Every structure is written in structure tokens, then in C-alpha cells.
């Protein structure tokens, strides 16, 4: 009996580049992120075609028991004093968790539960982030280079952006050359 050895897809751990299988790629530009940044005037004055982040993921079946695997490449930059970030989301199926692995760059993972309690985790090369169900999440690039993170999540999890229409409870800004977290004052 002759064994068949399958060559699985591949990811370059240093850069996060995926290859060896069909990919789905999507770039999110500043113009795609209305109401995400606190300084709406600075956002409106920016180039709406400027890329903020790119997601590459392996094509995968969706359904019970299947996982998606993808890499987010988040560019450095500021809108006003606020760092570039991903849109952020809860999962449509709230009970579904996710895992992030820091590949390169420097940044933060903003996590927030359904009651609005938020916390930040440092993202860097080799960091592992276990995002429990019922937790919204957003990547923030606080460095000078691209922040790349590998993510693995259930294909049925879905995304719920509408639940965060009022934003997250924390904003991450640069003040005096330092990274600062500011609580959002509602009302």
C-alpha cells in the first residue's frame, strides 16, 4: 500500500504571507470606516482610498465544525491622535470564540464584553490571544510597521458590527509620543 502525503497550505511566520491554497483577500480603506474614529473631521480630511488593513484567508468550507484561518495586516497610521485599527466586532453567534497569534509588528488587542467592560492585550511577535465567546475584539496598530496577526475562528461565527454602533469603551491614542488608553465618555 502506497501512502499519499498531502501538502497543506503554508504561512510564512515572519510575514504572515499565506500560500498553497485558494485565498480570499479584502482590503479595508479609510473611506470604508465611517464612525470608527473619534475625530470625524480628521477622518473626512483623510484620503478615503488609503488602505488601513488587508485580510487574507484560506478558502474553507463553512458549516458546523469548520474553521476559518486568516491573517490581518494592519498598517501604521493616525487619524487625529487615534491609531489605525480594524472595525472590530462581536460574533453573530456570540458564544463562538477566536484565537489570534501575533506575527509581526506592535499593537494592542481591544477586548470588550457585552456589558461594556473593556481591556487591552499587548500584541507582538509570538503573542497568543484567546478571545472568549461573548467578547468583541479589535486590533490597533501602535507601531511604525505593519501589525500582522493570524486568526482562527469557527466558520459559523459570523460578524456583528451593528452591536458596536456606539463604539468601544476605550480609545487608543498617541499623546506626547506615548500610547494612551482613554475611556469613552457617553452622553
From TrEMBL:
InterPro entries: G6P_isomerase_prok (IPR010551), RmlC-like_jellyroll (IPR014710), RmlC_Cupin_sf (IPR011051). It comes from Siccibacter turicensis. The lineage of its organism: Bacteria, Pseudomonadati, Pseudomonadota, Gammaproteobacteria, Enterobacterales. Keywords: Gluconeogenesis, Glycolysis, Isomerase. Belongs to the archaeal-type GPI family. Pathway: Carbohydrate degradation; glycolysis; D-glyceraldehyde 3-phosphate and glycerone phosphate from D-glucose: step 2/4. GO terms for cellular component: cytoplasm. It catalyses: alpha-D-glucose 6-phosphate = beta-D-fructose 6-phosphate. The keyword Manganese does not apply. Residues 32-183 form the Glucose-6-phosphate isomerase prokaryote domain. This is glucose-6-phosphate isomerase. One of its GO terms (molecular function) is glucose-6-phosphate isomerase activity. The keyword Isomerase applies. One of its GO terms (biological process) is glycolytic process. Its EC number is 5.3.1.9.
